[in-house]
């Protein structure tokens, strides 16, 4: 977003609001599509998984392209930890206008990224009634993270956990390459 706003002349705050609105509408569109495709009845588990997969895949593609643009003039990263730190500082700040609040690791390929006030969940943070829908709003960011990591040479499984709004814990589990 930062690079896009510099190129387009759109103020950073305007781009952030536009991104949040676009993300919210994307989730709403896929929910409506799911309900219309399912005959109006309750969605099946397979339909829910398909919509989450679409959101995650969109995020993956955006994450790949965005990190490529961000890192084109940077030297190669030395190790996995340096890549994840870049993701938590520069990548996150560029997308969400702040760094993550906490990064934890077991030094065995598992990282936990904590954002205490995740901007895509802040509008829903007024009550617990939205807690059961948070997985819809974290699928795209999980894809962003996975896409960025893939482009930087790391295969990973990325999941999100929301126990209290707007706090999100993203767990990144690196997948070792088989030799």
UniProtKB/TrEMBL annotation:
InterPro entries: NO_sig/Golgi_transp_ligand-bd, TRAPP_component, TRAPPC6/Trs33. PANTHER family: GEO08327P1, TRAFFICKING PROTEIN PARTICLE COMPLEX SUBUNIT 6B. Pfam families: TRAPP (PF04051). It is found in: Golgi apparatus, cis-Golgi network. One of its GO terms (cellular component) is trans-Golgi network. This is Trafficking protein particle complex subunit 6B. It comes from the Eukaryota. Belongs to the TRAPP small subunits family. BET3 subfamily. Signal peptide: none annotated.
